[in-house]
């Protein structure tokens, strides 16, 4: 007889993931074993601050990935699915769910003027919700931008037009009718996460038409089941439960198992993101940290940087990175490069639109320069935890790291040493895995229990006290330089120095 407190080991849950450049399907059993996975590319259009994708491509690419992944599986084992998508990507659709506009992607920045109006209308509420202001890349300013365009005005004049988040279009197609959005994808559209409702008083000031926004439920809620038409397109059995998902960053956090209060997930890819768990809402006057709400009610604070491993490819294109790593580790230099990737400045752990890369120290050869980039990324991660601690977020729990940066063992070791804390590298991770774990909760199992059963622990890298002390002066020089340039507030720098001295 199976244990009702853990997922059925013979059951299969599907994690669907729409990233900026891919559509993925992963099939995972109740022990966390990856049975099958498939991915299809997504393409978009970028011009200046414009970034759009064809919403129909999301469905066709994801359907193809599902068909491939499920081709060899027993359909009787498949119990449910959940979907992650990019945070803040939106479109307008008609009453039948047919897109009327392109998908405005998560980083489309054309709504600067509308962001000012959004903050004037709802600034008090945004501060209450912890993030202070709404950047132009958030969904509500871009919704107002859509409504200000001739095509948007024409669209809302028609009866039954809806605002959909990226995930909403897919769940509509899967169920065969519109279903509720989840509060994670709705966050950047202004959803009131404390009172769990749309802030009608703010939306009225912004002239957002009544009935435009979807109903909203918490992640983990069963939305419906896969309809016959969707089963034919995707290969997912008709009647499979469709569970409300979360944004890709939250999904990756679940996939890493970083759910206990004080636990944190570091995702180091082209840029890096930090996501943690807190029993209370973490409010950030500077607006670089915002909180999602977990299915059980905990808060998930985090931030996304404009810096990260994306600096490596352009500066070391064609280089043998393994050889550079080996030589850099032997030399052990302490120069730092601030590894900014974004051309729009920094967004976390401080906001500085005018930020640009810089070098501290001497880099007499390529290996030293390479090491300086690695060290700069890790110093920025350490600053992130100093800032989160200043805001009152619990930061003393376990630390899990995933992403492209974890493929370099020396970089992982450097991270543990500079941070002065153990770093866990799970056996497998990712947004699709996180959504399979969330889907497994539909059987009445708690998210923590599902993650404990399905997220497989991997290697633990422990810090070496002597190495932590070795890099502390370099970290403090980095803090001093950020402060000198006017990017880092004195209060944040002082707190970082104070924590370093403890």
From TrEMBL:
Gene3D superfamilies: 3.30.420.40
Keywords in alphabetical order: Carbohydrate metabolism, Kinase, Transferase, Xylose metabolism
GO function terms (MF aspect): kinase activity
EC number(s) stated in the UniProt entry for this protein: 2.7.1.-
Pfam families: FGGY_C, FGGY_N
Residue ranges annotated for the Carbohydrate kinase FGGY N-terminal domain, each copy included: 12-255
Spans through the membrane: none
Domain Carbohydrate kinase FGGY C-terminal residue range list: 321-442
First-tier enzyme category under EC: transferase
Family note: Belongs to the FGGY kinase family.
UniProt-recorded name of the protein: FGGY-family carbohydrate kinase
């Amino acid at each position: 007889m199976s244990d009702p407190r853990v997922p059925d080991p013979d059951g299969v849950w599907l994690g669907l993931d729409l990233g900026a450049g891919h559509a993925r399907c992963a099939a995972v059993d109740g022990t966390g074993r990856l049975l099958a996975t498939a991915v299809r590319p997504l393409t978009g259009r970028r011009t200046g601050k414009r970034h759009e994708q064809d919403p129909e491509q999301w469905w066709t690419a994801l359907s193809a990935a599902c068909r491939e992944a499920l081709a060899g599986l027993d359909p009787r084992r498949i119990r449910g699915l959940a979907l992650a998508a990019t945070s803040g990507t939106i479109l307008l659709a008609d009453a039948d769910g047919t897109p009327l506009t392109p998908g405005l992607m998560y980083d489309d920045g054309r709504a600067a003027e509308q962001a000012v109006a959004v903050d004037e209308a709802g600034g008090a509420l945004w501060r209450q919700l912890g993030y202070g202001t709404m950047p132009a890349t958030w969904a509500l300013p871009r919704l107002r931008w859509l409504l200000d365009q001739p095509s948007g005005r024409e669209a809302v004049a028609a009866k039954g037009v809806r605002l959909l988040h990226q995930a909403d279009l897919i769940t509509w197609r899967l169920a065969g009718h519109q279903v509720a959005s989840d509060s994670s994808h709705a966050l950047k559209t202004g959803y009131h996460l404390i009172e769990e409702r749309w802030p009608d008083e703010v939306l009225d000031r912004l002239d957002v038409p009544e009935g435009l926004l979807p109903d909203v439920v918490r992640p983990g809620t069963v939305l419906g089941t896969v309809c016959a038409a969707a089963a034919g397109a995707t290969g997912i059995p008709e009647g499979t439960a469709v569970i409300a998902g979360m944004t890709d960053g939250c999904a990756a956090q679940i996939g890493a198992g970083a759910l206990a209060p004080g636990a944190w997930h570091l995702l180091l890819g082209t840029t890096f993101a930090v996501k943690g768990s807190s029993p209370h809402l973490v409010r950030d006057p500077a607006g670089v940290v915002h909180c999602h709400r977990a299915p059980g009610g905990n808060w998930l604070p985090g931030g996304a940087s404009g810096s990260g491993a994306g600096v490596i490819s352009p500066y070391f294109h064609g280089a043998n990175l393994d050889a550079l790593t080996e030589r850099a580790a032997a030399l052990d230099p302490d120069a730092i490069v601030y590894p900014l990737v974004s051309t729009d400045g920094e967004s976390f752990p401080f906001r500085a639109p005018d930020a640009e890369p810089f070098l501290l120290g001497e880099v007499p050869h390529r290996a030293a320069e390479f090491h300086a980039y690695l060290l700069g990324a890790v110093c920025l991660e350490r600053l992130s935890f100093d800032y989160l601690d200043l805001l009152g977020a619990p930061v003393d729990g376990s630390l899990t790291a995933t992403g492209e940066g974890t493929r370099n063992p020396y970089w992982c070791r450097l991270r543990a040493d500079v941070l002065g804390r153990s770093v866990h590298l799970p056996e497998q991770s990712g947004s699709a895995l996180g959504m399979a774990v969330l889907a497994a909760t539909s059987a009445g199992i708690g998210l923590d229990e599902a993650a404990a059963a399905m997220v497989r622990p991997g290697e633990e890298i422990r810090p070496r006290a002597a190495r932590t002390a070795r890099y502390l002066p370099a970290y403090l020089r980095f803090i001093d330089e950020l402060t000198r340039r006017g990017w880092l507030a004195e209060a944040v720098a002082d707190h970082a120095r104070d924590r370093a001295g403890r």
